[in-house]
Design goal:
Elements (H helix, E strand, L loop, with lengths): L2 E3 L2 H10 L8 E5 L6 H12 L2 E4 L17 H12 L4 E4 L3 H7 L6 E7 L6 E2 L4 E2 L4 H14 L6 H14 L2 H4 L2 E5 L3 H4 L8
Parallel strand pairs: 1-8, 2-4, 2-5, 3-4, 5-8
Antiparallel strand pairs: 6-7
């Protein structure tokens, strides 16, 4: 059973106390898409003075499935190079599969799950309230097209489902970060649904 935390600061303190914030340490931040993984990974990287590597920055145009949708060789090289001098925080959907395909093993696995009200989602920076399922699917499709996935939003959804059913990252992670934002604070910054 993973240890669960409700704040980045509490999680970062636990990771530091457990020795997961030293050079040569690869921390994986995993979870469903658009749940706050990238934001959590960025904040952890700032906290530790670590390098943040996000699989979204390695998407290969035209690839249909994870982990083939990312340049695994570039990820491997960038992770290995950064690990020589600092901890690395790696964030991705299907993170364990992506790292396995990139021939990398991790030191610690953090799973991000959210407990936002229904109809709320994030673009990694800002929460958007009262989004209909149709709007969320349309936004997911737009994100997939913009990042080179073309019409693969349904494919990614199936891959995420299979990943969670088979690998159970939410159950076997070392730590879980329950991302529960205070909507009264977050919403004034929101730009509104796209």
């Amino acid at each position: 059973m993973p240890l669960a935390f409700e704040s980045i600061d509490a999680l970062a303190s636990a990771l530091r106390m457990e020795g997961h914030a030293v050079p040569g340490t690869l921390l994986v931040v995993d979870g469903y898409n658009r749940r706050g993984k990238t934001t959590a990974a960025r904040k952890l990287a700032e906290f530790f003075g670590a390098t943040h590597i996000d699989a979204d920055d390695y998407v290969v145009n035209g690839a249909a499935h994870f982990p083939e949708a990312v340049d695994r060789n570039r990820i491997r090289i960038d992770v290995q190079r950064a690990l020589l001098s600092m901890p690395v925080i790696f964030s991705s959907v299907l993170a364990l599969g992506v790292l396995r395909a990139a021939a990398q093993s991790h030191s610690c696995h953090v799973y991000v799950r959210h407990s936002w009200p229904p109809g709320t989602y994030t673009d990694g920076e800002v929460l958007y309230p009262q989004c209909s399922p149709e709007q969320l699917l349309a936004d997911e499709d737009a994100v997939c097209r913009a990042t080179g996935f073309a019409d693969n939003a349904p494919v990614l959804g199936r891959e995420l489902l299979n990943y969670h059913l088979n690998e159970k990252p939410h159950e076997y992670a070392d730590y879980v970060l329950d991302v529960a934002f205070d909507l009264d604070v977050a919403l004034p910054q929101a730009r509104g649904p796209r």
